[in-house]
Amino acid sequence: MKVLIANRGEIAVRVIRACRELGLPTVAVYSECDRASLHVRFADEAYAIGPNPPSESYLRADRIIDAARRAGADAVHPGYGFLAENAEFARVCADAGLTFIGPSAGVIERMGSKTGARTVAIDAGVPVVPGTVEPLGPATPDDEIARIAAGIGYPLFIKAVAGGGGKGMRLVADPADLGSAIRAARSEAGSSFGDPHIYIERQLEFPRHIEIQLLADHHGTIVPFVERECSIQRRHQKVLEESPSVAVSDTLRAELAAAACAVAASVGYTNAGTIEFLLDRDGRFYFLEMNTRLQVEHPITELVSGVDLVHWQIRIARGERLTLSASGGPGGTSPGTLVPRGHAIECRIYAEDPDNGFMPSPGRMLGRRVPGGPGIRRDDGGATPGLDVPIHYDPLIAKLSAWGGDRAQAILRMSRALGEYEVRGIKTSIPFFRWLLHSSDFRAGRFDTTFLDRELARRNGDPFVTVPDEAERIALLAAAIHAFEKATPDGESSRIAQGAARGWKLQGRMDALR
C-alpha cells in the first residue's frame, strides 16, 4: 500500500512516521509556502497542489486525487482538519479506486450533521442534551424558533448543524437576544461550512467535556479506550487535554465506553473515531457529537494505552481484525475493562500571543530549545529556526505531551518540559501553559468548560508573564556580577585555576581520540 497524506504540518509528519514503521511508501502534497516543510522532506515523494490559501490547495479534492494518480498511490490518509470529515472527499477517493483511511462516506455524512448524529444517539439509547433534533433552515420563521426555544429553556446555544470548533455557535441567555443570535449563527455557519442550518441545545451549567476514543474494524469489533478530558477550552476550542479524567469513576468510565460503543455500532462505524460527551455536576452524561477522524489529542490516548492509533487506522483500512483489549494489550472482541496506564497531559503549542488576547503570531522562528527527558513526547511539523510559521493555516506549531505514573507526576513533568521549552522570534502559548500548570484550581481538578474563559475575564488583560522593568534587569545583572566576584576574589588565581584544569582536560580529550 502506498499512502498519500492529504494534509500538512505535524499530523502529516505523524502519519508519515507511522507508514514508515509499517514499511509503506508515502506521498506528500504541499502548497507553495510549504515547499520546504518537514512533511515534504520526510515523504518518499511530494507533489505541489497549488497556492497558499487552503481553498486553492489542501481543500482541492481534485488536485489531491490528481497527485495520487500521478504518484500511483493506493490509499489516502486525511489527517485531521481540511478534508478529513468531508464525505464528498471520501466518496471521490473511493470512486478513484483509492482506499480512504477513515470511515465510509455515508457514515461521515450522517455523523457530520449534528442533528443527524443526535438522532443516531437517541436511537442507540444514549441521552442527548435537551434540544431540537430536526435542523432549522433559513425558511423557519423566527417566531417559531422563539416558541421552540421557550420550550427548551434558557440559557441555550444556537449551533450550526455542520462544522465545529465553536463556529456558528451563539450563547443566548435572554430571549430578547434570540433573533440577532440566530442571524449571526446562520451567517457564520453559511460562510464557514456552506450550510446555514442551525439547531438549539440547552446550556448545561458548568459541564465537563469528556470523550471516548474508539477503534472499530470491518468485522464488528469495537474497542473503546480510557476517556480524555478536554474541559480546558478557550472560546469552545480545546487547548489542553488529559487522560484519564479526575471526574470519572470506574463505574462511569464503563458507562461512557458502553454508550460510545452503542453509538458507533448503531451507525456501522469503522476506523478511528471519537464520541464526545458533556458531564453535568451530578455526574450525568449526554452525547454531544462524534468526530469521524483522528483527533489532535490522540497522543495522550496512545500514552495511556500503549496503542499506536495511526498504525491501527491503516491496518483496519487494509481489512485486518482488531486484536486489542480495551486496555490496549492483546485481547478479544469484547470491550473488557478500561484500565489507564498512568496519566497523560497534552498542551497545544500555538504561535499566539497569550498576553494580547491570544492573537496569532506568525513569522520567522529565530531560535528554539525543545524539551525532552523521561515521559515527554513532542509532535511537531518541523517549525525550526529560520523557517516561517505561515499565516495561511492553523497556528499550531507543536503538541507537547507528558506521561507520568499518576496525575501529579504528569503535571510535574509537563511543568518541567514547559520550563525547558524556548521559542524565539515569535510569541507562543507556552507562558500561558506555565501559568495554567501552576494554577491551584487546575492542580486540584476544579474546572469545567467555562473555567478558562471565566479566568481570562477575571484577569482582564493581566499578562501571564510579568517582564521585569529595566531597573530590575540592571539590579539582577549587578547582583550576578557581585556574586561572581565574591566567589572569585582573585581574578588571577581564577585564571590560573582554569588554566591548570585546561591542561589535563585537553590531555584527557587527546587520550580519548587515540
Estimate the global geometry from the Cα principal axes. globular
Strand content: 15-25%
What structural category do the secondary elements indicate?
A: alpha+beta
The low-confidence runs, each spanning 5 or more residues with pLDDT under 50, are 491-501
Give me the number of helical elements: 17
Overall mean pLDDT: 91
Relative helix content = 25-40%
User: Main β-sheet: number of strands, strand sense, barrel status?
Assistant: 9 strands, antiparallel
Q: What's the count of strands?
A: 23
The separation of the N and C termini measures: 49 Å
Q: Which radius of gyration do the C-alpha atoms yield?
A: 26 Å
Structure write-up:
The protein has 514 residues and is α+β, with helices and mostly antiparallel strands. It has 17 helices and 23 strands. It has helices at residues 9-21, 38-42, 61-71, 87-95, 105-112, 114-123, 142-152, 178-193, 250-267, 298-305, 309-317, 407-420, 430-437, 440-444, 451-459, 470-487, 491-513, and strands at 3-5, 26-31, 45-50, 75-77, 99-100, 156-160, 170-172, 198-202, 208-216, 222-224, 228-234, 237-243, 271-279, 285-291, 343-350, 352-353, 359-360, 363-364, 367-369, 376-380, 388-389, 396-404, 422-424. Strands 9, 10, 11, 12, 13, 14, 15, 20 and 22 form a 9-stranded antiparallel sheet that branches. The chain has a 5-stranded parallel sheet with strand order 3-2-1-4-5. A hairpin with a 5-residue loop joins strand 13 and strand 14 (285-291). It is globular and about 80 Å long. The two termini are 49 Å apart.
